[in-house]
Task: structure prediction
Amino acid sequence: MNELNGNLDKDQKSKFVVNKSHWIFENYISPRALPNEQILGWIKWDPDVQYDKILIKYDPDVVFHRILNVDESVFDQAETQDYDVRFKNSTAVIEKNLIQIPGFLGFRVAYNLKPEDEKELTFLIEFIKNEETIGSVELTTELIRPKLIITERPSQGIVVNELIPSLPSLSFTLKNMGHGEVEKLGPFLDVKSWETKDMKIEVKHTKERDINEDHVFVMTTIRYIPKIIIRGSGMGMISMGFEYYDKMNNKYETELVSVPLNIPKKENLEIPVSSTISNKQTLLLEPRLI
Amino acid sequence: MSVDSVTSGLGSSFLPILQKLLGSGELVHKGAILYHKSSEIEYTYQISIGNPQSRINEITKRLKQYLTKPVEFDDVIEIYGFGLPHNEDLKKIGIIKVEGQKATIDFSAIFKTIKSELVTITIRKPFPEILRRKIVEPHMVKSAKHSETDYTETNLEIALDYSDLWYKHFDKFTIREIEFTFNLRVALDSIEQTIPKDFSQKFIHAAKMAKRGDNNALQFIKIAQDKFMLFQNQEKTNEMFKTISINPEQNFKITHVNPVMQSCEIGGAGHPIVLPGSMNISLEGRIEKQDVALSGTLRIDLKQFNRILRNIIDEIKIATKKINF
Result:
């Protein structure tokens, strides 16, 4: 069984270190999270400890959804946008009198960007008495994502002719270097024009593969693209590669090739999406994940 | 949502009257159980009413002052009560009356007629859905920790919010039936790995020949599919149960394991075959003893899981031994 494609072989238990005081007797944080996935954390401490306030210091790209069991006025200090709460200087300040259950503080947050690489997110919780830190604890979670790299490319093209009844494909092998599970892997084709006023690029696509047409298309996860039509003049870029998602439906791309377009005078071009193979061309990108 | 609106949602409006009737310290226990999955709440009150002699003067005076008629409750799913130790059934003797979803408790009758010194009353009511979602924060970490061949493991988390409300109103509270669902994806690779190499080649060959319309190959695939469908049998499901363990056991239990069959192309052969594509696992968690946060782990023993898969492969092998294509 290979459930996840990920290789979570190292111990990913949360790390609770840094000056942790003996009176903080329990602490927890979700050991790993995808972008936009809920991260739940909490601490429990001796309710008899005297302090004035608690600070939660965190990564600026983190947004708070809730601080659990505190008076709503805690959020007065924050900028709230819809569901997301950001505190000034990435520090939430919770005065003692706003804590509703003595000896407990929890939070629910998320990281709402897609990181280029996996990284650790640390939350430093400090207890303040007379403006001095009397105790603190760090809660660290691993921000993970799937990350595909192409490990094998086809060395030769494919010629389609009447002797080959089924459509061949150009097979690529991809390896997941991240810890997030890969979902819905498929090729993508993306066309951008930089001077949209003068140049119109149309991607012809269908939901069904038309086997009577030329075997010339790129298959994406949702549609088949037989050709690109460019009208006008200007500059643009055609990119091809592989797209995939994680379990939070965050979309990622691994680029295969980008071809710049420069059409100096008005044209009306029909470009088949193809590899460079004699007269009968094909390009069915088929990714295989190892 | 304001704290006050949550408080009113707890449906504890009759408590102040009861406190006034009893005076301080006589309401010995207030407990609540929130059934998270069904969004129902069960309040339990244990009321010390003293012996009949001691009640006569003081309680009668308070009854006249605070309570002239039975207290009414709406939206009641279930209600019952007893006098202890004499086991007086409050419904049978007409102190608790139920009509449809409405119920009444005649507190004056409790004080006048019950011989026991302790009365317990339990009321089960619907719990507002919007509060349920705000009060309990269940989460299962989406990306499991995976060992190549031994196990896959993920984390379960429950934290309560607005829990000061429970603290204010109840001596003891429990949140039960906090539901988690988990989809364990069975990658095709695993099936290909579990199938002995010579037999896996036969599978791929069968798929290729089936695409060309070979009847024997189609028969081979049908037998294989029928055997894979055994995953949905009770016996196999019970075996699946044994591959899953949860920690801590006192807080989490497995309720369902359902294999989800799906059409897949094995070995890129171009002919679909129905395989157990994923296992849908449902769990329930509970928080008790006035705790407000709890974490646990769900672990699936992959060796045991693969053994179940291998047994099915062996059955396919025997059943298709004489089919050639």
In short: Residues 2-143 of chain A form a domain with the Immunoglobulin-like fold (CATH 2.60.40.290). Chain A touches chain B through 38 residues (CB under 8 Å).
